[in-house]
Design brief:
The chain has helices at about 45-60, 95-105, 115-125, 185, 190-200, 210-220, 220-245, 265-275, 295-305; strands at about 10-15, 20-25, 30-35, 65-75, 75-80, 85, 90-95, 110-115, 135, 145-150, 150, 250-255, 285. With about 300 residues, the protein is an alpha/beta fold. It has two domains: about 10-120 and about 290-305, Nucleotidyltransferase, domain 5 (2-Layer Sandwich); about 130-285, ATPase, nucleotide binding domain (Nucleotidyltransferase, domain 5), CATH 3.30.420.40. Helix 5 (about 190-200) packs across helix 6, helix 5 (about 190-200) packs antiparallel against helix 7 (about 220-245) and helix 6 crosses helix 7. The structure holds zinc ion. Zinc ion binds near residues 164, 175, 177, 179 and 182.
Amino acid sequence: MSGTAPECIVAVDLGGTLTKIGYVSEDGSATSVRRLETDRSGGQEGLADWLADRIAEAVAAAPGPCRGFGIVVPGIIDPATGTVLSAPNVGWTKMPIRDRLHDRTGLSGTVGHDVRAGGLAEWRLGCPDARNVLFLPIGTGIAAALIVDGRLLVADGYAGEVGHTRVRAAGETLCACGQLGCLESVASAAGVARSYAAARGTTVGPNPDARAVAEAARAGDAYALASFALATEALTESLLLCTTLLGPEVIIIGGGLSGAADLFVPEIGRRIAATATFQRVPELRLATLGADAGLIGAGLIAWEGLDHE
Ligand SMILES: [Zn+2]
């Protein structure tokens, strides 16, 4: 092995069904990213052991010296103690995963939140000069990462739930969170599929497919166009609120529904610009890192942790 091989972090984006693992160098480039089926057969403890084994394997196969690990998890995370307080998607409650992984691998590392990590990566690699950024991944639900004055807003894990802000366009639709009229009930990929199905009087299957609705909309289907119009209205209302409160310079739209960006993003930009009076009008952009954003963010958080050691 060459003595000049770059140092790396073993980065992991742990998901309920799929886990990504790869190497992230200090400049944020990711290599050898693999997608594995998450093994949840061993329960809470078994999953921690499985993860430690995958990290140990990756360290053994690394192209250069490994400085540590960085993992991100969907749920409520306490980054200070490296504990996952609650992550129903992976079945963890009060799991001190950073210490467990340290005990098993001998490496130090960091634990972060998947969406905030993705936002960090999109910011650092996509618009590093901006100090106020809103990253909005629109998938099955809608989450957000908020960068304010050059800092990622965490608020003990509670910040960024833009999908559960109430909007008039959502009416009295019941959200999975228990509230009525949340943004994501009409503007997530699932929400768009649902409102299309409701308008057509059909039911959606277990995997509502917003892509099919987008194709129908581009072909001129009135119901599909109406579903995207509703999502556009709801997103405009919520993003105007965010713009008024947080003053983002850039709003980055990501997630699965960004594949249909032509059907809603330019219109939202026009409406915000037309409605804003004193507010700073944000630039709307599309995410550039795709599905690897969380993994890259996991690596960047670990690198920043090393800087502070
Ligand atoms: Zn909600």
